[in-house]
Queue: 3 jobs
Job 1
Amino acid sequence: MREQTVDVAVIGAGTAGLNARRAAEKAGAHAVAIDSGPLGTTCARVGCMPSKLLIAAAEAAHAVREARQFGVHAGEPRVVASEVMGRVRRERDRFVGFLLDEAQGLAERGLLIHGRARFEGPNVLVVGDDLRVTARRAIVVAVGSAPRPPPILSRLESPRVIDSDKVFELDAFPERVLVIGAGPIGVELGQALARLGARVTVACADNKVAGIRDPSVLAAAKSALAREMTLHTRTKLETAENRPDGVWVRFSGDDGEVFEGTWPLILAATGRAPRLAALELERAGVKLDDKGKPRDFDPATLQCGELPLFIAGDAAGHRPLLHEAIDDGQIAGRNAAAFPEARPGERRVPLSIVFTDPQVAAIGRRFDSLDLSTCAIGQVDFADQGRARVMAKNHGMLRVYGSRATGALIGAELVAPAGEHLAHLLAWAIQTGLTVEQALRLPFYHPVVEEGLRTALLDLRSQLSVRSGP
């Protein structure tokens, strides 16, 4: 078997892995990445970018339909699935191409090894059948994640059941689609398919729509999304079977309701799981829980116990978002190069965005982490917000959380038009430590959607002025 020794070995050449290798190299280590392919990051291949391309097409079709309310009559749009998906795939491949060029450059310099890696010891990897890689300092695991369909559906092995990775290979849009899972992926893709002409039903068991935790925001989101899709948010998948005309499924609700039907296409959007199983982490001394995840993992340093082993990005399952994967990679790469020293990385204010219409976002502290005796909540309903009504996008709710002790903004959840922009303003305000008073002294133009944020801040200020407790 061939032998290779490096300072740092990174398993995975996705967003977290490439950033980890780069950070380790910047810290003075000889670092290589190892990946079995396909190369080109989850975000570019099957995540952020192709989904937004599909959503952009759906928004175009929706705009044509909605034009009549402004007195502009364009008729029903003719959606040509092959053209829609052709553009999705062309642009996706363009984004992936940039990453493949980077990977090719690394391979030519001997910094990217193609092959499947598994642990032989804490510092030793076997790649394929003929290469052993020893890391003098540490190893970073950045193998990403994979869709996690329900076992009931996986057992069918039906081409009519697809996951979110396969949706971008569709060449036609079926008349009806069942989406199982109402998380960010499920509602984004479900609404896009609905706007492209499918009748979409979304089902989940936990009443968690788009990851929303604030009950008022959740109610507003369900109301908005139900205008375009049928939602069953407290139903459990009980059984499924292949039939000549599709897949028959039956659900039972927590209220005793049962619904069933046959769908020509089912999209399983029940989340993603870290790709850890094939790494044989036990050989590195990692103790795993019953879900196959490391028991002793520090999300601040990304280290597994005291081992020379760090886990970054979606593989860690901590904050599975691209900007967090970048930070993870940098933290893990620096710590791997400096091992045995491992320092907590600097973190940004948590920020997540779901690209439905209206958009959903969560910033900073979440509703379920609040102590309502020490904080207050301000809100705005976008039903009567000026610019939202002008655009006929007057649906949604923004709730902003503030500390009674300091007056500082600490978090927010929202479903709102232009939510991605409101979310960034709030993330910047929270990270810089702005108080409600300081935020209200900033400029707000008229008429803009951001005036809705001003309304919520004014409401929050009035709530903070009310004393808590006896």
Note: The first strand starts at residue 2 and ends at 11.
Job 2
Amino acid sequence: MKKQYYVNGEWKSSTEYVDLFSPHTKEVIAQIPQATHKEVEAAIDIAHENRKQMAALTAYERANILEHITQLFIENRQKAAEIISLEAAKPIKYALAEIDRTIETYKFSAEEAKRITGEMIPMDAAKNGANRFGYTIEQPIGVIGAITPFNFPQNLVAHKVGPAIAAGNTIVLKPASQTPLSALFLAELIDQTALPKGVFNVVTGSGKTVGDALVKSNKVKMITFTGSPAVGKGIRDSAGLKKLALELGSNSGLIIDKNVDLAQIVPKCVMGAFSNQGQVCISLQRTYVMDEVYEEFLEQFSALTNKLVIGHPDDESTEISAMIHPDEQERALSWVKEAVEQGSNIVSGGTIENGIFLPTILTNVSATSKVSCQEVFAPIVIVNRISSIEEGIAAINNSDFGLQAGIFTNDIQTAFKASKELEVGGVMINDIPTYRVDQMPYGGVKESGIGKEGLKYAIHEMTETKLVVWNQQ
């Protein structure tokens, strides 16, 4: 089935198409248009021309549009989830959970659209500030180029589209090549709202063509990107003076202290490590467990991991299915083999069966093994023994990444110490680093990127602060 991309409220064809394959069945599920550079430029021009029309909408009108999108997702919850499951092989129960989060994200965006405010500046606090009245206003920046990943093809799109609309900007969205159907379905829903045509545009195609055009265009004022550090660095180097929000890699770590309730902790760790086949930016990848509870934790963790239901993503009981591409599974397998060659032990998994990479637990993993020091983005987790909290903090900090980390402890001083010393954007006390709700600030340090997501925080990234000073003489 040939699909069309969406520009200026119209569905458009291109001269070239590529087959889109199901990651699970390997069957062709659609043919996706590959926009040319000229077609991308045309979409950017449309978004640029509609800036003033979008900026003229009141906060009330923008909020109503976002509320309508929210309602349309509620009405189309099952269909939206089935599209995710089809193109990304995400088990249907997790795809439904993603749509529930998407609904919340657009709802939060609608609410935040009404809260975009500046602040009063106490001008007379300065010696030369007498008789002056100052304040700031937040104004939309214009065209936003949104480049999104495959792993949450609705909710991570919503984290860019929702705040962009709330702030009064126009958008050109380039979805991941493996998950364009979700973005095109979003266009179908938005087409039913009062959002002016040309404000929201979806252009499918290669990152080299579509992404490069967005990054290099002088009419695009901001790039918001979620993806790999290598691509993020390339965007940074090519973007000039555009605003950037780059959500990049991670190898999230967790510390488990002694004297904690493992029965409560272990199920969270299994979910954090293996949900969506480990293809989550804040997936639990590195676990550091105190000596006193190490053996018991490993026993419970491996037992529960081995009970995960592996199967077709359409099956409501399935918890693990195929990764996004066979090449990614082979890469993950090679990383496991490297770790074993360097002295690691396989407790569970470590193989591909029936086209599915099995949930894998490794122990005694070197800090220099790829499964530890790079972003694995696969259902692989390491469990290493530590003899002190300081050792665990040092191990987590021994990383090029710093998105989120977690610690389970009953000691308040230990919790405070970890919260201050962990070099990450977010510390989860008594929770896994995979925890996220969509209104919280979300973004990392080091090679995990720059800028914050989370609706209020993303809106701030997507506006310009203008100072106004009145001289009352």
Note: The chain has a mean pLDDT of 97.
Job 3
Amino acid sequence: MTKLLIVEDESVIRSALKRLLERNDYDVSEAGSVQEAETSFDLQSFDLIISDLRLPGAAGTTLIKKAGSVPVLIMTSYASLKSAVDSMRMGAVDYIAKPFDHGDMINAVERILKDNAEAKAKQKKTTQDIGQTTTRMEGFIGDCEAMQNLCDDIAKMAPTTSTVLILGETGTGKEMVARSLHEQSHRATQPMISVNCAAIPETLIESELFGYDKGAFTGASANRVGLIEAADGGTLFLDEIGELPMEAQARLLRFIQEGEIRRIGAVQSRKVDVRLICATHRNLERLSREGKFRQDLFYRINVLRVMLPPLRERGKDILHLAEHMLQHYCEKLGKPIKSLSPKAIQAITTYQWPGNVRELEHAIERSVVLADGDEIDNDLLGIDLELVNVSRLRSSSASSGSSNKASIRSIAQDPPEDLSLEDYFQRFVLEHQDTMSETELAQKLGVSRKCLWERRQRFGIPRAKASNDKRVSAQKD
């Protein structure tokens, strides 16, 4: 049977939760404190630990490190943004507020156990992979499914000579993927030549790529080797290939088809052995239909395709990346190691990051340079939290339409699988608006009263006037 441990100092809650889990065929043990749990049980023998946050002696989060690889579900009646963020940062697998619905608890336990089992199986499979695991993961930070698939694709594509087309928004790391493909290929000891097609003037692009012979044009006083020929035996990376002029596209097509080039002004062609990798943030298929990119060239370079996910779709990877970059720049700039404040974490996980990883990296570097204390706040990152929240609420309102109220009810009932601070706002307001004033709610959420009011309007959450007015009156008295 699956073994669970409940660590809860209130015996009534502990007993009730134990009965609930045992009715669902779990083998349940219990303890009233962290110390009792440590002395009475081998923590790593359990499949899941469910612990209260506030416990006598030591907080429930101290079990996270002590339990090793065993997932820890934190439950607490002190629901607040800071405690949620802190618990997740320390490694809690999930966070649930008391009082909780029995169905919610069972669903959370089942989901965590399933995810943990799948993660262990995947990890075991990865460690048994064909000796390429460490190499192919080097330089890539993230555990989301998209990044894992990306690493798998790189490992499969790298040993081949096939042309690769890398697609992704600006700043997603297309050149890093190209370099990884080269370094894991049989050409790793040969040169990799990178060309930014958007950075070379249209009048010079052909001479840069294909080279020229002496006397080919005014100013050609000597023979010059082109970048394609310089990459002979290795890899040619054409970044922003969508910006390549039509004339250069025609010559590039011949190079791909025939495996040979002819310098400008030359009579004879030269054979070259080059592995081609292309990248762009533009939709080449649409451009080819519109006549702005050669269709035959598109078909030639669209052999193996790699799609890089935007940063906003990488879930918890965003926070992992930010913390890794923070440590990197602290060490690089000779600064004491700093941490991200709860507001900074909220900003990082809710901002859309149109510039993706590059924008995040620059924001972290800037904050490390400007920070005076040991903590990085959202202001140093250059992110206006209120503007970000209002923007997200507007887009959410526009996309969901009349289903807002139904989604609010769903959020209030079902704990999120990932730490979505936008969803957490809705749950927090619904659960506490009867016991807190608007000022208290705004303070707890780290926003202004105006922002709180705007969010209520966007999500259609009615203000509990009677309860709030009574509480405010009581405070004034």
Note: The two ends are 57 Å apart (CA to CA).
